[in-house]
Design goal:
The protein folds into 2 domains: 91 residues, no CATH class; 110 residues, Orthogonal Bundle (Transferase(Phosphotransferase), domain 1). About 10% of the residues have low confidence. 35% of the residues lie in helices and 19% in strands. By secondary structure, it is of the alpha+beta class.
Length: 230
């Protein structure tokens, strides 16, 4: 067996996203390593749902790290450089002592503190003006660059606090197209419709979280249907 490139066994994950534990990369403090937990989570579910088609792919095809790395490379080929600041970077797969990991950018605020994802932000502060502006900016980016969301969850979007106090929305997971025949990725008008559908799903998630927050911003969640957000 090949020797692990990264040793994580003694470290503690600083976050968990779905079926993956997230560790700081001991080689670079501005990077993190995602490790799929035992059972495979969503990836294992997708493999089971695929039926006979799963036999056309390698066993690790449905692993969440492999999926995210594939989607990142697709976007990189289409978008080129400079890399959009609204998408977190992926740096590739790496062998660790606790399994194969995906090395990703560790999204931090301007002062170096960990950035909150949108779900965490809404629970703490509700749907305030800064979060609304970030949502509008995210919608413009998705439509302008034709970026498809496979999983429109608020937890997949991190809000990086800039030096001027504004929030930069950064997508850290959930990219891709779940269609069996990916028409939305081929035809621009179909892509825009798909983006609109997933955007409405995201707003539904945001409304729910804002209501749960019980803050003044949460009481205004119904206004999300206003111009610029849908």
């Amino acid at each position: 067996m090949a020797r692990p490139e990264v040793i994580l066994g003694a470290a503690r994950p600083f976050a968990r996203g779905g079926c993956r534990l997230i560790y700081r990369d001991p080689r670079d403090d501005w990077r993190a390593v995602k490790i799929t937990v035992s059972g495979g989570g969503e990836g294992a579910k997708k493999r089971a749902e695929a039926g006979w088609i799963r036999y056309l792919h390698r066993h690790d095809y449905y692993d969440e790290n492999n999926r995210q790395w594939r989607e990142h490379r697709k976007l990189a080929r289409r978008m080129g450089l400079p890399w959009p600041r609204h998408l977190s970077r992926c740096y590739g797969l790496v062998r660790t002592d606790v399994g194969v990991g995906l090395v990703v950018e560790r999204v931090a605020n301007a002062d170096g503190t960990p950035a909150l994802n949108m779900e965490e932000y809404l629970r703490l502060r509700g749907l305030d003006a800064r979060c609304r502006r970030a949502l509008k900016e995210l919608r413009r980016f998705l439509l302008g660059r034709r970026v498809l969301l496979r999983d429109a969850a608020a937890s997949n979007i991190v809000l990086r606090e800039q030096g001027d106090g504004t929030l930069l929305p950064v997508i850290v997971d959930g990219l891709g197209n779940s269609e069996f025949i990916p028409v939305s990725g081929w035809i621009p008008c179909a892509g825009r419709r798909k983006i609109g559908k997933r955007w409405r799903a995201l707003l539904g998630n945001v409304r729910k979280l804002a209501r749960q927050a019980g803050s003044r911003g949460a009481t205004q969640a119904g206004k999300l249907s206003g111009k610029g957000l849908v």
